[in-house]
Amino acid sequence: MNHTYSRRVFHSGLLLTGVLLSACVTINIYFPAAAAEQAADKIIGEVWQLQKGEGGKDKAAPAPSTTPTQSQPQPQK
Amino acid sequence: MRNLFSRLILLAVFSGMTFAAYAAADIEVNTPAIASLKQSMQQRHGQLAAHYGSGAVGLTRDGLIAMHDANAVPLAARQAVNSLIAAENQDRLALYREIARANGHPEWEAEIRSTFGQRWIELAQRGWPVQSAGGGWTKK
After folding, report:
1. Taking all residues of chain B, what is their mean pLDDT, rounded to a whole number?
2. Where are the domains of chain A?
3. CA angle at B121 for the pair B76 and A41, rounded to the nearest 5°
4. Minimal Cβ distance to A16: which of B9, B27, B41
5. Phi, psi torsion values for B58, nearest 5 degrees
6. Which of A11, A52, B63, B138 is disulfide-compatible with B113, CB 3.0–4.6 A?
7. CB contact (8 A) between residue A33 and residue B111
8. Which residues of chain B lie closer than 8 angstroms to A28, CB-CB?
9. Can you give the pTM of this predicted structure?
10. Packing angle of the helix pair B75-102, B109-123 (nearest 10 deg)
11. Contact status, residue A60 vs residue B125, Cβ threshold 8 Å
């Protein structure tokens, strides 16, 4: 009685381990869609020079302009 | 005996989870080939952006770009825009191929291309022509 029980547990444990291992292999072979999406967003952001913002609207803020201080000759001497 | 097996199973579950997380962690995009493609596309975008905005050029579902409304481009400039489109598509195809290769899975190229196809459209500015799932054109 106890013997058959532990055999059953052993077999189901073996089966489960097998399923899990094959699941791991499957995950490794299948295309990582979420990671690919992230990689795509990163590349597109660089190519299109998108700024990281939370706005859903088109915030077409131009490139940060340099400070408008003009290099004027200092009348120091 | 029973305790031992349940521990074993627990261990298998955890190691499986760790491995799964590791396997799906990242996509490699930092290679010299990808960097130079990105740079070339970034430079070209300076010229293409106006044509997306005017509705002349649109983003296709399959990760490329195409002439959408040729009438939005003066006749004299049309050939130049066609050349821009051809060069951009060449870079895009090379980019998808390079990403697949950099990750050791050349067979992922089609899936990478289709992922990009969705993301270009998703991140496009408002007003740009984009191809819908059915193949027709809409404005973003």
Report:
1. 89
2. 2-47
3. 115
4. B9
5. -130, 170
6. B63
7. yes
8. 19, 23
9. 0.68
10. 130
11. yes
* Interface test mutation site (partner A, options B116, B118, B122, B140, max chain A beta carbons within 10 A): B116
Determine the residue of chain A that is closest to B28 in CA distance: A39
pLDDT tens for chain A, residues 1 to 77: 566 777 888 788 778 877 777 766 555 568 999 999 999 999 999 999 997 654 444 444 444 444 444 444 445 44
Two tokens, residue B30: 């930092």
Q: Which tokens go with A41?
A: 């967003």
Our CA-based measurement puts residue A59 at a distance from the nearest CA of chain B, in whole angstroms, of 9
Determine whether the interchain pair A47/B45 forms a contact, defined as Cβ–Cβ distance below 8 Å: yes
Selection from B130, B101, B95 nearest residue B113 by Cα: B95
User: Nearest chain A Cα to B117, which residue?
Assistant: A40
Spell out the residues 6+ positions from residue A50 whose beta carbon is closer than 8 angstroms to its own: A44, B123
From the number of C-beta atoms within 10 Å of its C-beta (0-12, 13-18, 19+), residue B73 rates as: buried
DSSP letters along B50-75, please?
A: HHHHHTSEEE-TTS-EEES-GGGS-H
Cross-strand partners of B67:
B57
Using DSSP bridges, classify how beta strands B57-59 and B65-67 pair: parallel, antiparallel or unpaired.
antiparallel
What SS3 state is found at A1?
coil
